[in-house]
Amino acid sequence: MNWRIRHLIPISALLLAGVSNGQTVTTLYGNDGVAEASFGKAISVNGDLAVVGAPADRSVATGRGSAYVFQRSAGSWLQEQKLEPTNSEQYDFGATVAIASDWILIGYPSDTLDGDFVGSVRTFRHDGTSWAQQQALFPGDSTYRPFGFGQALGANDSLAIVGSPNNMAFVLRLVNDEWVFEQTLVPDTTANLNFASSVDIYGDTAIVGAPTQVIDGLLQGAAYVFTRKSGTWVQTQVLTASDGNQRDYFGASVAVHEDVIAVGAHKNDLADVDAGAAYMFARDDSIWTETQILSAPLERNLNQFGASISLGSNVVVIGAPGHDANGFRSGLAAVSRYDGQRWLQPVAVIAPDIAERDDFGSAVAVGSGTVFVGAPSAEPDASDPFADLGAVYAFSQSHVLNSVPVKAYSDSKQVLAHPNPASNMITLTLDCFDNLPLRIDVVDLIGRRVLDAEATCVSRESAVSIMIDVSRLPSGLYFARRRDVTASSIGRFAIVR
Question: Which of 184, 260, 452, 458 has CA 20 to 30 A from 71's CA?
Fold first, then answer.
């Protein structure tokens, strides 16, 4: 696949869960309703099994933090069990979670060993009656132990990878029903990289994020690819962004599935300040090549698009917890499908009850036909709107992807520009969909916003015209795009001097 596309125009689809096309979203939350538990901070799914981390749960007798297991039965996700750590009194159990085959792995980065804050990964397996803890895995030995082990976690089949703030990642392998340390992964540089802030693994490929890696003198970030060859994991490539810039935090989130790698850069400023971006890489033979850069639908500053990311078969889910789609930091997630030639522009997904500071999109997961999005500060209990119980929303993957309108990929007639070409003033005419304010952005060919304007629709099924002064723009091709919570349309015009 030797192609690369830069998406410039956000698409119009915005799926309001529980409303759009009669689809009802499933809302998952702990049945014990613990306030400020950060339920939904971490999510993993495999088949009919899902696990959700609540690392700030203060109700747990053994310390602080828990994880909830959900089982899908007859199409419904039902809570099966609440997991708690044994023999510990520390906090943040459930900061990271993963499912490997029929095992659940829970990251516990503040766990102690011999009085030191080393961190651990707790493994659980179903014994026929309930999920029971099998192991508490600690890194290192008595001569040296890193700290924060479990800050990042990924797993697939009989393999797992664990991140530590010491610029180390650890590969674990399941051998005879026990998880053992297979190898420690370190980068080929000693710089302060935040190496292993994010990790993932699939087959013989491991990906490790280093979001503060210095590239060309700028703190851009990188992602390290390790490949298992002849039983040994070796660094084979360092991925960087083609448009990387200072403090983009490329590598803040990573995912790998089959021959695809996705890397989040949630501080990327190309579309707007900290709007974020997601970079897609494809493997051709043994070389990984950047193929596309995905940007958020309804682009805004401080989106943090790419703060979380998850890959499935021909689908990627990307979280933007800083987005203001339904109030300050209400958040959103976006889903893109690979059509055999390219990744389609992401379609936005938000839940109908998401509100200010819910951080919807802080964690995402995709699998078994379902898209999961975590909102660790959400208030799913309407009787107590300040409880911050946290929630996870489960969407039908096919419904989300089918909600993308075909017209979003063609030249829409909903934004008309006159005169076209223009030189000094241009009038943009748009259809109205509701009695709501709408915003128009003018962007250039590389997606930079160069002008904006606002107007208000007075009624449904009407139109509104906006006159914009373009006299200061250089000659060239520009796009006018509408951005609001009901629709997004595009129009194209030229400026000739």
Answer: 260
**What is the CA angle 494-495-497, rounded to 5?**
145
- Average pLDDT value for the chain: 83
In angstroms, the CA 342 to CA 71 distance is: 34
Query: Which of 493, 306, 491 is closest to 415 using CA atoms?
Result: 491
Q: How far apart are CA 50 and CA 46, in angstroms?
A: 6
Q: Is the pLDDT of residue 41 over 70?
A: yes
Residues 400 and 433 in one domain: no
Indicate if 400 and 439 belong to the same structural domain.
no
Please give the share of the chain, as a percent, with pLDDT higher than 90.
50
Q: Does 259 share its domain with 370?
A: yes
CA separation for the pair 281, 41 (Å, rounded) = 26
CATH code at position 422: 2.60.40.3080
Look at residue 345 in the predicted model and tell me its pLDDT.
79
Distance CA 271, CA 298 (A): 11
Question: Distance between CA 366 and CA 310 in Å, rounded?
Answer: 6
Give the tens place of pLDDT for each residue, 179-232.
999 999 999 886 767 999 999 999 999 999 999 998 888 889 999 999 999 999
How far is it, in rounded angstroms, from Cα 235 to Cα 66? 34
Element (H, E) at 399: helix 397-402
pTM equals 0.78
Asked if residue 463 has pLDDT above 60, the reply is yes
Please, which residues have CB within 8 angstroms of residue 77's CB and are 6 or more apart in sequence?
Answer: 26, 28, 50, 70, 71, 394
Count of structural domains within the chain: 2
Residue-range definition of the domain harbouring residue 195: 5-408
Pick the residue with more confidence: 242 or 162? 162
- CA atoms 197, 203, 204, 205: torsion sign: negative
Which pLDDT value is given to residue 384? 58
Predicted local distance difference test score (pLDDT) of residue 383: 53
Return d(Cα 278, Cα 364) in angstroms, integer: 14
| Spatial separation of the C-alpha atoms in residues 435 and 74, rounded to whole Å | 40
Long-range contacts of 71-78 (CB under 8 A, 24+ apart): 72/48, 72/368, 73/48, 76/26, 77/26, 77/28, 77/50, 77/394
Q: Which of 411, 242, 404 is CA-nearest to residue 339?
A: 404
β-bridge mates for residue 416, sequence order: 429
Two tokens, residue 489: 């349309």
Tell me which residue has tokens 């939350």: 29
Q: Specify whether the CB–CB gap between 131 and 119 falls below 8 A.
A: no
Of 24, 36, 34, nearest to 394 by C-alpha is: 24
Task: For 244, list phi and psi in degrees, rounded to 5.
Answer: -60, 145
